[in-house]
Specification:
- The protein has a domain of 127 residues.
- The radius of gyration is 34 Å and the shape is elongated.
- The chain contains 5 helices and no strands.
- Helix 3 packs antiparallel against helix 5.
- The protein is mostly helical.
């Protein structure tokens, strides 16, 4: 019987030892139970809107430089064709690059309209309505991403193809009989 009492006592102590010592406390009144809601979200929305504006600006700079890239690639391909080289792969990549630009431009213009109306933001980029501001950021980013996807990888593929083509087909450098590999001696 003593063994049974001792065993019951040990089991009781084990049960008591696993029970919590303190109670559960509720959050005090006045504290926001959902952090990141309310005014805490304003700085994040303002930063996101600024990032979208910067992205829009960079995409605009790309579109401004695109004609220059195309002109340089056309010149390079034209010179290679004059030398009798096959440039069909380069032409195809250049046409793909050029063909993607209207879709990028259209998406860029749509993003510009969204950013310029800046629903939910004031003229300084400060949040006035968090719901509308979040939707503005989402819509502008979506439009910019659509433009990015339309052109994704085409410029890089063209640049790498031109670089490889140049490496494989670089014209020999003319040498003159007086050209030496050593610098002239000091006098």
């Amino acid at each position: 019987m003593v063994k049974k009492l001792l065993l019951a006592g040990v089991v009781g102590l084990l049960i008591v030892s696993v029970m919590p010592v303190t109670g559960v406390f509720a959050a005090p009144l006045g504290e926001d139970p959902n952090p990141g809601q309310g005014k805490d979200v304003y700085p994040r929305l303002e930063k996101a809107f600024k990032r979208v504006q910067d992205w829009y600006e960079k995409q605009g700079e790309f579109l401004e430089r695109a004609d220059d890239y195309i002109r340089k690639a056309e010149t390079f391909i034209g010179k290679a064709e004059q030398r009798g080289l096959d440039t069909s792969a380069l032409r195809s990549l250049l046409e793909s690059f050029e063909g993607s630009l209207p879709a990028v431009q259209k998406a860029h213009e749509r993003a510009g309209e969204i950013i310029s109306t800046h629903d939910g933001f004031d003229a300084n980029g400060k949040v006035t309505d968090p719901g509308k501001a979040a939707q503005t950021v989402k819509d502008a980013a979506s439009a910019l991403q659509e433009g990015r996807q339309a052109h994704l990888g085409k410029g890089k593929a063209l640049a790498e193809a031109i670089k490889a083509f140049w490496k494989d087909n670089r014209p020999p450098r003319p040498t003159t009989p007086n050209e030496t590999l050593l610098p002239p001696p000091n006098e």
